[in-house]
Amino acid sequence: MPIAEIRVAKQDWADFRAVNLRRAPAVIREFIRWYLRRPGAKLPQRPSPEEIEKALATANEAEGPAERGPQSE
What we know:
By secondary structure, this protein is mostly helical. Helix content is about 50%, strand content about 0%.
């Protein structure tokens, strides 16, 4: 598969990776296939707010104290 670059806000990508871990690229590919209405493609399941909060808290603990801006959906 060729590599394609997209621009995503640094904090959004960091949070997305924290929530999805190694599955982040696969989630993006699944979304694109769904968006293009490819046969059999399904919209990736979104994590619950609690799952997101837990993943971000875990990632923040691993990083140590850091300045984070406001988060939005």
